[in-house]
Amino acid sequence: MLNDASAVHDFLHVLEEYKKNCERQGKYVEAEIAKKRLEELRQHEEERRQEALRSRQIAQRLGIEEAHMLEFQQFNTMWDRKMKEYDERAVELLEAMRQRHELDMAEFQKKKTAEPQYKPKQSTELLDLRRIELVLAKQGEYAEAQKVKVRADALEQSDAEKSQKEREQQMLAAQGKFSARQEAELSALRQRIHTGAEEQRHARQQDLERLLQRYHNIKAELESQQLAERARSKKGFYGGLTEGGAAKDGGSPRKSASNSRLSSGSRPGTANSRRSLGGEREQPRWQ
Q1: Are the CB atoms for 151 and 129 separated by under 8 Å?
Q2: Per residue in 181-204, pLDDT tens?
């Protein structure tokens, strides 16, 4: 392609010299024919150059788009994996705490049940009835003593049931407090997990915004470079012909800074690109 372009420009230069010679020699018909041929060839060459430039610049833009899509896919894959691992770890921690709470509650109940039962303190009324019972028995008034004994036994049974009920209520209250402490611990773990998940979502959004901003910056930079390249190409072509020289395609296209950035450390999938996305963030601490 470069040899063909060079041959065309060499021919344009020869034809330009031929036109000038015809003009100097007064061969105006031949000069007119050469002039028209020059215009046709110049127009054709300019169209070819512009088409080649458009094709090259489209390829550059497509390269940036493809690189961005690859980086975006890698970004989502990495973050989806991190968030899935986080959720799985959260489930494991919650289940481990529930199992530990069940064991702790069973041990607590066993300990409370094994505590010695103290004989309830006898009420003043019961003590009085027992004294009267003994006095009546010593006096030989057994019938009255029996009546008092029945009353005292009933009162003693009532006091024992009352004491047992109070003990059960105390045990239930202690168990309720123990259960409340466990629920508070579980709730605190859930809150830490929720906070960590929110931190991850926020970090992912920040990394995504940086990724998109970098893409827009590279795209804008490439568009600016391509615009300048098109202007230079048109100016260089006409300028070269005006001076009578053989205007070339400009050699190999200048490698843009945008392409350099894509082909170097910021190419998706490399360690540098992963660092540019924010890298592997530390897992939020939940316990």
Answers
A1: yes
A2: 999 999 999 999 999 999 999 999
Nearest-5° Cα angle at 261, 258 to 262: 90
Please report the DSSP string for 59-74 in residue order: HHHHHHHHHHHHHHHH
Nearest to 204 by CA among 55, 79, 70, 99: 79
What the block records as the tokens of 264 is 């170097």
Integer angstrom CA distances of residue 239 from 135, 198, 236, 244:
140, 61, 5, 9
Is the CB of residue 105 less than 8 Å from the CB of residue 230? no
Domain ranges of the chain: 2-276
Mean local confidence (pLDDT), 80-93? 96
Out of 56-60, 139-143, 206-210, 218-222, least confident range = 139-143
DSSP 8-state code for residue 283: P
Paired tokens of 94: 């919650």
pLDDT digits (tens, 9 = 90+) for 204-251: 999 999 999 999 999 999 999 999 988 887 776 555 444 444 444 444
Q: Which of 88, 81, 92, 90 is nearest to 280 (CA)?
A: 81
pLDDT of residue 92: 96
